Amino acid sequence: MLSCHTRTQQADLIVYHATIYTVDDSFRIAQAMAVRQGKILAVGSDQQILHDYSAPQKKDLQGHFVYPGFIDAHAHFYSYAMSLLSVDLTGTRSWEEVLNRVKSFADAHPQGWIVGRGWDQNDWPGKQFPDRAELDRLFPHRPVLLTRVDGHAAIANGEALQQAGIKPGETLEGGLFVIKQGRLTGVLIDNAVEKVARLIPPLDDTMKLRALQEAEQHCFAVGLTTVADCGLPKQTIDFLDSLQRAGRLRMRIYAMAADEKENYDYYLRQGPYKTDRMHVCAFKLFADGALGSRGACLLQPYRDQPGWYGFLLKDRKYFDSIAHVLINSPFQMCTHAIGDSANRVMLQIYASVLKPGNDRRWRIEHAQVVHPDDIRLFGEYAIVPSVQPTHATSDMYWAGERLGKERLRYAYAFQDLLRQNSWLPLGTDFPVEDIDPRKTFYAAVFRQDSAGYPPGGFQPENALTHQQALQGMTIWAARAQFEEKEKGSLQPGKWADFVVMEKDLMQVPAREILHNPILATYQAGQQVYAQTRD
């Protein structure tokens, strides 16, 4: 009798009595999962797992729903953390509201630069860029820099412009100092922003750590366990890595190195870098700016600004030279491209060095407006479109004014892009958009805002299915950063990163998705967030 008895295997954690979406190749649904040393041992039925495994910690999930830890395929985690130390201008409905928030911040922080982010003139009456006149009156001797929500435009006051040495008539490649009647308005577009931003004194490491830990908790609270941080200097990557190795930061980060000489000099010599929490295997470049600030580079003029096409941020020869360097390295090339001209340029450059059927996973970040003649290049050369569904539902109110009806038809075309390679990573671009993956899912599937506008969805022919949206936030996002063998689905051998939700994301009515409570978030089998109940 003893010889017939099956000995149970030891685990650290068993979760059971759940509906577990494994997001494996067959999209299997299970009931229970065993975890040891941060990795998944087995996934199966309650009966199987409870019979075959024992653990000091058992968690009855009471019928709730489990998904792989959400992965944001395109975000700016470090920038988001630093933004928590500045004026939050998101959601402002007028320039006056911006000024009021800045005054309140200045009263509470009476010294140093005033820095803020999040305004969007498209949400204001008249939809016009602001002017620095009132900032100059309020802060004649204190520099101010307020960045637009997308990071591709900002407004500086006179003191900041003077410290930067900017004068009317000055020009630079890939940027614009907006002038009216021979006077600087303070509005800076794309590369012009850096002329002022580089003067802002750096924060000390203690403040940075506090902000990063707060940002991490915000991410865990919405089910994010991994983020791709797009465009970081080596110094920042090293700082984040040191915090992770010291156990002071737990967020997993896929760090794309910024398009800077120091990064190329170091990483091309040393090769990719990887730990359990940090992975550096890509370079992030910017081909153009944003549609909202009219910096996106278009094939035909903006409908609401005749004669204006936007611009590339660097000469085409520069992007071509980087592609020829990176093709002979193990690194991804990931390029921000919004307008149809920028997308065409980058797709053609990629195609000139990539071979059909390659597995290099070079990416176009955003791919917002892609001409129908060019979309085939994604599939022919296995180029990955990395998209952000909430951009579509944020831009839909005014994108037609920029693009016109005909061109709008091939913008935010997620199904068309998905068909090219049969997979599509999803992200948010936070802090440009909200960090919450539930909003990503909702925007991808229903193409509506939180009020249910427009009825039937914005260009619903390009909506994703429930399954596609979940895959985009998990296994496809992992694949986009060469990590599909260790995360993105709940399978034996992978990290036990998972999210517990009260209701079924795959079945709940649309109106309930944004309010579907996240009960807990686990990373490597450790609970890093638990909902607090009143």
Automatic annotation (TrEMBL):
<dbReference type="InterPro" id="IPR011059">
    <property type="entry name" value="Metal-dep_hydrolase_composite"/>
</dbReference>
<dbReference type="InterPro" id="IPR013108">
    <property type="entry name" value="Amidohydro_3"/>
</dbReference>
<feature type="domain" description="Amidohydrolase 3">
    <location>
        <begin position="60"/>
        <end position="529"/>
    </location>
</feature>
<dbReference type="InterPro" id="IPR032466">
    <property type="entry name" value="Metal_Hydrolase"/>
</dbReference>
<dbReference type="InterPro" id="IPR033932">
    <property type="entry name" value="YtcJ-like"/>
</dbReference>
<dbReference type="GO" id="GO:0016810">
    <property type="term" value="F:hydrolase activity, acting on carbon-nitrogen (but not peptide) bonds"/>
</dbReference>
<dbReference type="Pfam" id="PF07969">
    <property type="entry name" value="Amidohydro_3"/>
</dbReference>
<protein>
    <recommendedName>
        <fullName>Amidohydrolase 3 domain-containing protein</fullName>
    </recommendedName>
</protein>
